[in-house]
Amino acid sequence: MLTRTAMIITMIMRTATTTMAIMITITSMVPAATTIITTTIIIMAIPMLMTTGTKPPVEDVPAMQEPADPAVLYRLMTWLSPSFPVGSFAFSSGIEWAVEAGDIHDAATLQGWIAAMLSDGAGLCDAIFVVHAHRTAAARDFAALASVAELAAAYVTSRERHLETTAQGKAFVDATKSAWNAPGLDDALANISSPIAYPVAVGLVSALHNLPPAPSLHAFLHAVISNWISAGVRLIPLGQTDGQHTLAALESDASRCAERALSATLDDLGSATFRADIASMRHETQYTRLFRS
Predict the structure, then answer these.
(1) How far is 270 from 277, CA to CA, in rounded Å?
(2) 222 and 266 Cβ atoms separated by less than 8 Å
């Protein structure tokens, strides 16, 4: 009996240390009832040994959701990629002057500058224009779309910022018409007499390709933020890894900007980033420049 009890204890030692400790304590306290108590504890221990390390039921594991249409991701990654020919690499939105003036001098100040643009400046305004261009184009209300386009072209604070947004808008429309044309694009453009700002072009084309507004907006913001960071990396200068740290840190700022824009009206447009506005103006007369804005 003692030999059999010792073998059982040894086996449990290898699989459930907590149960083994209970058995030793009880066995030493009540030696006369070893067989009975040991048998009872083995019955209790077997379910523990059987469940240890087992996988949870399939229904407890959250399932990954696949995008409804892979074309959404494919097209947005193409259109908002740095390789898409809109010329964004040539513009800094005034960051070049801010670096020379000392406002931006490291990754932390670059992040703070961009975060302010997303919460209270051009980033938020452009996001609102994306949403309203998408909304009017999706409804095929091209007269309302023309009003949004006119307002977006006028809603810039300097000559160079106007050049930046309209040059990229035109390049975006030209590239998508050539390679990614959509029914209704020519009709929409025929109703717009003003230059097309970049966010309006993105919203328009996304809507005519039946892409949802939220992912279209997030892709647009990612492209704009990445370009601002790229300018900072080249001007400060920063390492590529510092640029990625900055991009990761701005994810929540981009999400909040998108959330506000998706529910905003055109009356919510406004900017309080006066230093950034001044930077875009001062850049026009900056002596040494790498960027067009």
Answers:
(1) 12
(2) no
Residue in 264, 38, 12 with CA at minimum distance from that of residue 130: 264
Cα–Cα distance measured from residue 125 to residue 179, given in angstroms and rounded to the nearest whole number: 28
User: Which of 107, 97, 111 is closest to 161 using CA atoms?
Assistant: 97
7 vs 106: CA distance, rounded Å: 67
Model pLDDT for residues 82-134, shown as the tens digit of each residue: 999 999 999 999 999 999 999 999 999 999 999 999 999 999 999 999 999 99
Token digits of residue 64 = 């990954």
Q: Tens of pLDDT along 54-88?
A: 554 544 545 555 556 889 999 999 999 999 999 99
| CB atoms closer than 10 angstroms to residue 186 | 10
Alpha-carbon distance of 283 to 275, in angstroms, equals 12
Q: Which of 49-53, 164-168, 178-182, 211-215 has the lowest mean pLDDT?
A: 49-53
* Residue with the two structure tokens 């590529």: 240
Which residue type does 281 have? M
Q: What is the pTM of this model?
A: 0.78
Residue 132 has which token pair? Answer: 């309203």
Asked whether the predicted pLDDT for residue 239 surpasses 60, the reply is yes
Answer for the pair 93, 122: CB distance below 8 angstroms, yes or no.
Answer: yes
**Distance between CA atoms of 201 and 148, rounded to whole angstroms?**
11
Q: Are 131 and 217 in contact (CB under 8 A)?
A: yes
